[in-house]
């Protein structure tokens, strides 16, 4: 890579004398490099980036308060980030790598090595798109057995995740399933919790996560205490580059041997704790320890916050947008009544702007009933969705208020409390498809043969 213009470099190397060596090396390096600002701390560095200075930043591994969110902010500004470590400082390299810094150089790097690293980091920053973690992975049942304890409403406080179990499971590349639906309570949490339980009962190690920044409710739905840090705690650890399998186990709750839960924020005002950059690291870790990660997302897909503020302000909907963009499969949930279907059709248009691969989106029509959709509701709703948005639902979940109310009061899923429910059978069939299994054969009613008259 050659350029006639000077490459603007920012430095934030806190150790005395080290930035002087780097500046001297840049001056003698092949190419045209200029240090436009020597930053004294992270706030100074982010201020320079926000002012439009610099194409690449040299940061030391010991820079105070450097976290994954700061690295992501620089990347969104198209500023490359290079870590500077002492010779043989393996711990420093590991910390920078955990924060998302892909380029590292020793503090005594040769001018040619430093120049090559700067140009590589700039190229990566210009071509990268933060938050794009899509893949094509399928859930594969990994053995195991299901278990549940329907005796009490509140699940046992001793059911914490086993760190050793997470370490042993680590290294997989699991599937991320995002459950989204428009405003109006179409049943996102109901579908997410029951799909997660069905996958677990099929023998798939599953992590259920509540990432709804407006109304997290998975803890209450499953009868768990909602005062645990859950996802917010895992996100804080990820933002500091300290989230691994052992740390994740500290915040996950064990519901069954194959199902673990990261509960959501207890108050909507705490949405700022779920930063997109941190959640990307959380999803990477949950993929590693679970074959399937099921995430209950918020309803709102707007990104207007970036238009209102001139600074790099937190994005309330960033958690949902980042999760949908990173998901391998999206379950788009809409209720079956006319008002909800109208919202659902408009919401799918917004969803298309985030999820480009519509083949990975499965439409789930929930609360299906004849009283609002008429006779043959599945056929009528399917025809309407085909006409207006060009999709066919992957599942129709019948409205079963008696079974759902019993599950909610008991703090259990349909599989645990009402296994013969029609809604449960529809969700089971959907979960089997997500797990790559054939749906169960339809149940046949016994036929009565006519009796012969003597």
From TrEMBL:
Under Gene Ontology molecular function, one entry of this record is: ATP binding
Per the UniProt entry, the signal peptide is none
InterPro entries associated with the record: P-loop_NTPase, ParA/MinD_ATPase
Task: Choose one Gene Ontology CC annotation of this protein and give it.
Answer: cytosol
- Keyword entries, A-Z: ATP-binding, Nucleotide-binding
GO BP field:
negative regulation of cell division
Annotated Basic residues bias: 442-454
Using the UniProt annotation, give all residue ranges assigned to the region (Disordered): 127-147, 435-454
Q: What is this protein called?
A: Chromosome partitioning protein
């Amino acid at each position: 890579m050659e350029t006639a213009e000077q490459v603007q470099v920012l430095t934030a190397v806190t150790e005395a004398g080290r930035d002087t060596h780097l500046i001297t090396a840049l001056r003698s390096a092949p190419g045209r490099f200029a240090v436009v600002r020597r930053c004294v701390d992270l706030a100074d560095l982010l201020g320079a980036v926000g002012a439009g200075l610099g194409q690449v930043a040299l940061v030391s591994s010991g820079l105070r308060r450097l976290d994954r969110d700061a690295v992501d902010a620089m990347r969104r500004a198209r500023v490359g980030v290079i870590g500077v470590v002492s010779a043989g400082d393996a711990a420093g390299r590991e910390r920078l790598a955990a924060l998302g810094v892909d380029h590292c150089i020793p503090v005594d790097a040769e001018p040619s090595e430093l120049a090559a690293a700067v140009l590589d980091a700039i190229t990566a920053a210009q071509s990268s798109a933060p938050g794009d973690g899509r893949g094509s992975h399928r859930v594969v049942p990994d053995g195991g057995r299901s278990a549940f304890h329907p005796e009490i409403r509140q699940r046992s406080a001793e059911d914490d995740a086993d760190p050793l179990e997470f370490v042993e499971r680590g290294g997989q590349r699991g599937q991320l399933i995002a459950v989204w639906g428009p405003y109006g309570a179409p049943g996102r949490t109901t579908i997410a919790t029951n799909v997660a339980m069905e996958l677990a009962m099929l023998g798939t190690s599953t992590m259920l996560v509540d990432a709804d920044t407006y109304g997290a409710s998975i803890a209450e739905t499953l009868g768990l205490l909602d005062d645990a840090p859950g996802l917010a705690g895992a996100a804080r650890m990820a933002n500091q580059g300290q989230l691994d399998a052992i740390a994740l186990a500290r915040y996950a709750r064990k519901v069954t041997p194959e199902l673990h839960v990261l509960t959501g924020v207890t108050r909507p005002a705490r949405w700022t704790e779920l930063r997109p950059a941190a959640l990307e690291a959380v999803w990477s870790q949950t993929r590693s320890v679970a074959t399937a990660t099921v995430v209950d997302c918020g309803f709102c897909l707007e990104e207007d916050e970036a238009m209102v503020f001139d600074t790099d302000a937190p994005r309330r909907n960033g958690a949902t947008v980042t999760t949908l963009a990173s998901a391998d499969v999206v379950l788009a949930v809409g209720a079956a009544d006319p008002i909800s279907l109208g919202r659902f059709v408009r919401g799918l248009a917004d969803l298309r702007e985030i999820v480009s691969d519509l083949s990975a989106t499965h439409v789930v029509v929930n609360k299906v009933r004849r009283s609002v959709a008429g006779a043959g509701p599945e056929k009528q709703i399917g025809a309407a969705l085909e006409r207006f948005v060009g999709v066919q639902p992957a599942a129709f979940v019948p409205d079963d208020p008696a079974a759902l109310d019993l599950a909610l009061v008991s703090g259990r899923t349909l599989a645990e409390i009402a296994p013969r429910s029609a809604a449960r059978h529809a969700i089971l069939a959907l979960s089997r498809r997500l797990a790559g299994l054939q749906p169960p054969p339809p149940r046949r009613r016994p036929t009565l043969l006519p009796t012969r008259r003597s």
